[in-house]
Amino acid sequence: MEPGEIAKISLFAALTAVGAMISIPIGPVPITLQVLFVLLSGLLLGPRLGFLSQVLYLTIGAMGFPVFSRFSGGVAVLYGPTTGYLWAFPLAALVAGLLRKRTGLALAGSLIGVGVIYLLGWFRLSLLIGEARAFEVGVLPFVPFDALKAIAAVWIAKEVRALLPEDAL
Q1: Could you tell me the pTM of the whole model?
Q2: In sequence order, which residues have a C-beta less than 8 Å from that of residue 106 and are 6 or more positions away?
Q3: Would you tell me how many other CB atoms lie within 10 Å of the CB of residue 24?
Q4: Any residues with CB less than 8 A from the CB of 72 and at least 6 apart, and which?
Q5: Residues 44, 36: contact at Cβ < 8 Å?
Q6: What is the structure's pLDDT at 107?
Q7: Which of 21, 33, 13, 29 is nearest to 138 (CA)?
Q8: Is 84 exposed, middle or buried (0-12, 13-18, 19+ CB in 10 A)?
Q9: For 63, which DSSP code?
Q10: How many other C-beta atoms can be found within 10 angstroms of the C-beta atom of residue 4?
Q11: Rounded to an integer, what distance in angstroms lies between the CA atom of residue 15 and that of residue 12?
Q12: What is the tens place of the pLDDT at every residue in 57-82?
């Protein structure tokens, strides 16, 4: 792996951590900007590096650094109510990156990436509080916000790509 790739992976792991700190608690799952940076990692870095940036983010959090929402960290967070959402981040970045790279459909990739986050997050939360309640508190309140984040990610990625030379990303 090249040093530039390591820097890009690290940057998006850090941005995802910053996104976690911007948090609005509304129940067991807070509204954060993590999803925006997860999607951007796939759209800007591509599927491989986007995936790895989110794996790094989870690894740093598992090591105890307070990079998750509410300034939390540690392995226990990766087994709590938000586990499914967190574990879905690498897959969402992968999906967003793959669809943008192979089909040029960045918005579809972003929306499907959000769907992956919802599916895994809802599944895990439903094991704790039941399917209907998990959908009610872990998916529905987030749909409008995450749709806006997906649109914003596509727009930001397009603007960044227009400003930087092709080989910079």
Answers
A1: 0.95
A2: 43, 96, 99, 100, 154, 157, 158
A3: 10
A4: 61, 66
A5: no
A6: 97
A7: 29
A8: buried
A9: T
A10: 12
A11: 5
A12: 999 999 999 999 889 999 999 988 88
